[in-house]
Amino acid sequence: MNRNRMIPGLVAGLAGAVLLSAGIAMADADDRRDRDDDMPRDDWMSLTELAERLESQGYTPYEIEIDDGAYEVMMVDDQGMVIETSIDPTTGEPSQRRWDD
Predict the structure, then answer these.
(1) How many domains is the chain built from?
(2) Residue 91 counted as domain residue
(3) If you placed Cys at 100, which of 16, 19, 37, 82 could pair as Cys (CB 3.0 to 4.6 Å)?
(4) What tens digit of pLDDT does each residue of 24-51 get?
């Protein structure tokens, strides 16, 4: 293959990747301004407290993330049903649940 043709294509591809990643980063930053993830967490229960509470209710949490000012939890119930739920970080109460098979 002709090297003179390869270099411009490579440069264009790299430039496109840089612009795409910059756009994604800017969109993520805009999204974060609308969320309350930066709210004070003094009153939040710890991840350990939340996990222990869920386990005492018969669930096995396997992923806990912070999203939109709440804990987003993926867990399995005692019958093997996968559950995704948002949990209020101060009360520990679920605000929304979705079941997956």
Answers:
(1) 2
(2) yes
(3) 82
(4) 444 444 444 444 555 678 889 999 999 9
Which of 48, 44, 99, 49 has its CA nearest to residue 75? 99
Cα torsion 83, 84, 85, 90: sign: positive
Same domain, 22 and 57: no
96 & 51 share domain:
yes
- Contact, 85 vs 97, CB < 8 A? yes
Q: Which residues of 44-60 are buried (b: 16+ CB within 10 A; e: fewer)?
A: bbeeeebbeebeeeebe
- Full domain range(s) for residue 92: 47-100
The reported pLDDT for the residue numbered 1 is 55
Report if residue 42 sits inside a domain: no
